[in-house]
């Protein structure tokens, strides 16, 4: 399937599956932000994160250590697969 301008559309589920057991950063539509290890996902983009933390200020401030969290796919605004910087800043305060 081609998008406007001839670019190929790619199903985001492919990228989620490729990043299982990787640390990701997730921002929700309500403004909440989470960093954790992606352990499961499905075609509706529901996410299960292990060792999750809730962060704020674009990942620079730790709000809470959550543990395991289920994030409903319809609430996801965006996902970053480069979460190590956000987690490090939140946990160390640097």
Automatic annotation (TrEMBL):
Any one GO MF term held by the record is: RNA binding
GO annotations of cellular component type:
ribonucleoprotein complex
Which Gene3D superfamilies is this protein grouped with?
2.30.30.100
Write out the entry's keywords from A to Z.
Answer: Ribonucleoprotein
Q: Which CDD domains match?
A: LSm6
SMART domains assigned? Sm
Q: Where does the source fall among the domains of life?
A: Archaea
Q: Which GO terms describe its biological process?
A: mRNA splicing, via spliceosome
Note whether Ribonucleoprotein occurs among the keywords. yes
Show the InterPro entries listed in the entry: Lsm6/sSmF, LSM_dom_sf, Sm, Sm_dom_euk/arc
Using the record's annotation, list all stretches that form the Sm domain: 11-85
What the entry lists under PROSITE patterns is as follows:
SM (PS52002)
Q: Which SUPFAM superfamilies match?
A: Sm-like ribonucleoproteins
Stored PANTHER family: SMALL NUCLEAR RIBONUCLEOPROTEIN F, SMALL NUCLEAR RIBONUCLEOPROTEIN F SNRNP-F
**Name of the protein this chain belongs to:** Small nucleolar RNP protein Sm
Species source reads: Aeropyrum pernix (strain ATCC 700893 / DSM 11879 / JCM 9820 / NBRC 100138 / K1)
């Amino acid at each position: 399937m081609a998008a406007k301008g001839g670019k190929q559309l790619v199903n985001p589920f492919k990228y989620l599956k490729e990043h299982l057991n990787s640390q990701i950063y997730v921002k929700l539509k309500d403004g909440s932000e989470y960093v954790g290890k992606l352990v499961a996902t499905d075609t509706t983009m529901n996410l299960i994160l292990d060792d999750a933390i809730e962060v704020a200020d674009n990942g620079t401030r730790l709000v809470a250590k959550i543990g395991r969290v289920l994030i409903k796919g319809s609430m996801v605004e965006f996902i970053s697969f480069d979460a190590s910087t956000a987690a490090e800043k939140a946990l160390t305060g640097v």
